[in-house]
Amino acid sequence: MGMLSRTIQRLALGLGILSGFGTVVMMLLIVADVAGRTFFNVSLPGSSELAELLLVAMIFLGLAAAQQRREHFNIELATQYLPPLVKQVVALAGWVISLAVVGLLAWLSSKQAWTAFLRDEASYGIIAFPIWPARMLIAFGLALLAVQILLDIAGTLRPRPAAGDLAPQTSRHE
């Protein structure tokens, strides 16, 4: 599972970085649209729809990377005073509940994305902008988040070496 785990972690990190670039692209798109309206009285056709797609990509492509780096919202008020073993059991229960909820959301959104793709679902407006890519991004992002949570559960269950079992670390420069 080591190579698969590293591959998933690299994928999540790469998509998180791509999500950050989506922020820059959306910002440039909005600036160009506002400048066009202000100075030339012309807006960019489809810019609102594209900004919506970019927003979905920014959020859902970055979910797994945020989970991997433990950057999601977390409250430790009740658990900070628990003994380490109880804290680990509570954390594991939280991961399992999170996996169930995110897995269900990923499955349902995958079904909805597939239906939207088959129907070639598009927005109503000046430009018929396809909606199914955003639905696919939501499903993919949630599925990747579920896999990352599964990796977190496996990491929580993995036995840790005892303090005496660790070999001393040596520097390459010695």
TrEMBL record:
What terms describe the molecular function in GO for this protein?
transmembrane transporter activity
Check the record and name the InterPro entries matching this protein.
DctQ, TRAP_DctQ
Is Transmembrane a UniProt keyword of this protein? yes
Q: Which residues form the Tripartite ATP-independent periplasmic transporters DctQ component domain?
A: 26-157
Alphabetically sorted, this entry's keywords are: Cell inner membrane, Cell membrane, Membrane, Transmembrane, Transmembrane helix, Transport
- Bilayer topology annotation: Multi-pass membrane protein
Chief subcellular location = membrane
Q: Name one GO biological process term.
A: C4-dicarboxylate transport
Tagged with keyword Cell membrane: yes
Q: Which residues form a coiled coil?
A: none
Residues that span the membrane, as ranges: 12-30, 50-68, 89-109, 129-151
Where in the cell is the protein located? Cell inner membrane
Q: Which family does it belong to?
A: Belongs to the TRAP transporter small permease family.
* Its job: Part of the tripartite ATP-independent periplasmic (TRAP) transport system.
Q: Which PANTHER family match?
A: 2,3-DIKETO-L-GULONATE TRAP TRANSPORTER SMALL PERMEASE PROTEIN YIAM, TRAP TRANSPORTER SMALL PERMEASE PROTEIN
* Subunit structure comment from the entry: The complex comprises the extracytoplasmic solute receptor protein and the two transmembrane proteins.
Q: What is this protein called?
A: TRAP transporter small permease protein
Species of origin: Stella humosa
